[in-house]
Amino acid sequence: MPDTILPALELVATTRIPVRFDGEGAGIGPLSWGQRSIWQDMVRQRSWLPIGGWAAVPDGTTLEDVAADLRWAMRRYPTFRTRLRFDVDGFDGVPAQSVAASGTIWLDVFDVPPGADPASFTAAVDAHYRAEPYDFASQWPVRMGVVRVDGVPAYLSTVTCHLVTDGVGGLLMLREVAARHECGPTLGMQPLEQVRWQASPDGQKQREKALRHWDKMLRQLPPVAPLVPAGGPRYHRGEFTSAALYTATHATSVVFDIDTSQVLMTCLALALAGEGRPAIIRPMVDNRFRRGLGDVVAMVAQHGICVADVAGLSFEDAMRKTGIAAMLAYKWAYHDPETVSSLSATLDVDLEAGIWLNDRRTISRQMFPGSRPDADQVRAAGPGEFRWTVAQDDPYDPLNVDVDDEPGRFRLTWFTDTWRTPPARVEALAREVEALAVHHALEALERQTP
User: Fold this and answer.
1) CATH code, domain carrying 183
2) Where is the Condensation domain (predicted)?
């Protein structure tokens, strides 16, 4: 994707096509647990957290085709028809969700100006959609624009509010829209159905058990440490791309026949451990292993909490301990965030301690492509490159890392509150995770060699 977004261009739609829709599942109710969690993030980060992207459309695509896809998606997915209500009593300051039975959404059509690069222009449209303020109460949570080249549809940008869905649901939606003529009935519990289950006896049992787990974990957090203000924008984002981390993780996961995420989490836990305190990791859990959530286009992912005391342990023991802690974090990530917030307010601990981890890999998450690397390949994989890309005053999570696949390497995107964790410490942490992965991969391969 081009880095430049041609800010000099005036991004005004050539025309707007009204798309009328209707759908089932209309109603008003509280936010589901997943929606409440992402709403808390939105409030903290002062952002509607737009997600989505742009891509080329298949040859022969017409405006009528795109409008039909949009109408189908609005009908199929209640979250596309969901807006927030801030005037409903009894929700303790949390907005209600309102799912519409029908309405009209606008499909924007942009024409690439003469001499402009079409891909860069489309990237600018996508950035424009993300930058434009969003009204939760009056606007539909979907923005879609077709980009034409010489009058022919060439690209499509689709941006949604994160309340609509998580990443897994977004991929499911793209697959279904592409094959909409073969799709059967909508599957999975929609958010208003989730709310009803969460209020049921079974849902309340899950809520209470999850709260007991969170209570135990929160009590192990350190006390609040003073902030250290620094000059310039407070929140930074950086990228660490590493073939060495990718190759070492691949080798270790095969040698120990263990989940690749557990290898990464163990290296991260060992890098974080110190000063007599356990490592604290907040993994993003998709929750789609739960009944009724596997095939739903909705926001059901939530952060869990994993506390692993791995200081001084061997790598195998650290993997075992991290694995158990991670399993509990995944099990109890499906929780009522309001009850956890209430509990947190009573404890004199640093509620922002640790690191938020979002392992978003789609290729190597379950199994790496290709055969297991040998020791020479692990040694030959080059060390990672770190670069800071953004500095801003709008907040991120205090310390967060997203993990993505790239061909033959990982891309780790780091977000930090520099008043808590300065940039130099973040870069050192990234390199320490890489060094630990390489060291323990070589140890494991050496022991396995006859």
Assistant:
1) 3.30.559.10
2) 71-230
Let me know if residue 218 belongs to a domain.
yes
Q: What is the pLDDT of residue 214?
A: 96
User: HSE-up of 52 (CA within 13 Å, CB side)?
Assistant: 27
Same domain, 127 and 254: no
| Tokens (6 digits) for 335 | 């929780």
Residue type, 377: Q
CB atoms within 10 A of CB 114: 6
User: Does residue 224 share a domain with residue 181?
Assistant: no
User: Domains in the chain: how many in total?
Assistant: 2
Mean pLDDT by 10 residues, the chain (450 residues): 43 94 96 96 93 95 97 97 86 85 98 94 95 96 97 97 94 90 87 97 97 95 90 96 97 94 96 82 95 95 95 94 96 95 87 93 88 96 96 93 95 97 96 97 86
Distance CA 197, CA 295 (A): 17
Q: How many CB atoms are located within 10 Å of the residue 227 CB?
A: 11
pTM listed for this prediction: 0.92
Tell me which of 188, 214, 230 is where a domain ends: 188
* Residues in the chain, total: 450
Identify each DSSP E strand in 253-298 by its residue range. 279-285
